[in-house]
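To: structure desk
From: M.T.
Subject: fold request, one chain
Message: Could you run this one when you get a chance? Sequence is below, nothing fancy, just the single chain.
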Amino acid sequence: MDRDRILAWVRDERLGLADFLDDLGPDDWGVTSLCSDWTMHELAAHLTTSTRTTAMGMIRGAIRARGDFDRMTSDEARALAVRFSPAELIGRLRETAGSARRAPLTSPLDPLVDALVHGQDVARPLGRSREMPTEQAVAAVGHVLASPFYGARKRCRGTRLVATDADWSAGNGPDVVRGPVAELLLLATGRPAGLAAVTGPGRARIASALSGTSA
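Reply: Done. Structure tokens follow.
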């Protein structure tokens, strides 16, 4: 896929997300996001890191977190949320929205996944709607399923995901899961919130995987 096109998608999503965050009220920033470890303030802080993380910074963070990637990213987001106000973080997100720079070891599509999924992490707990563009969501979910980073292969094992709003499907398992591609992306990235809008015999299998129980 053309990198300039992906970068344009990422820029648009980041700017749209900055506008969305700009509309949050003072009480919204302390609400827990779909990333249950983070408040909205901490999630906004995380969104500013992908264009600023260096290889050396990642190494230092990994050492402090004793090799635990999730802990490293969580600690970084919390530290930035203490340092910067919501308004400052929104400014930082806009400042590098069009930057091609990305965190070490990531691909051009990872920042797109980040922006699309975290946009829902912000919107849904607040009872708000944030549209996810279908073409971008198709590219993102395909990448998530192909990448070992997200754990989607294990999460979706034994299923076939079929989009109801796009000409897209993936997987060769016996149990079909049908739904809007945005919801399939949420499931692939480990968000149980996507379960509400999908149907099919594979739904229970993915629900079990998300809850940590056997299917």
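Reply (cont.): The radius of gyration is 17 Å. Let me know if you need anything else for the meeting.
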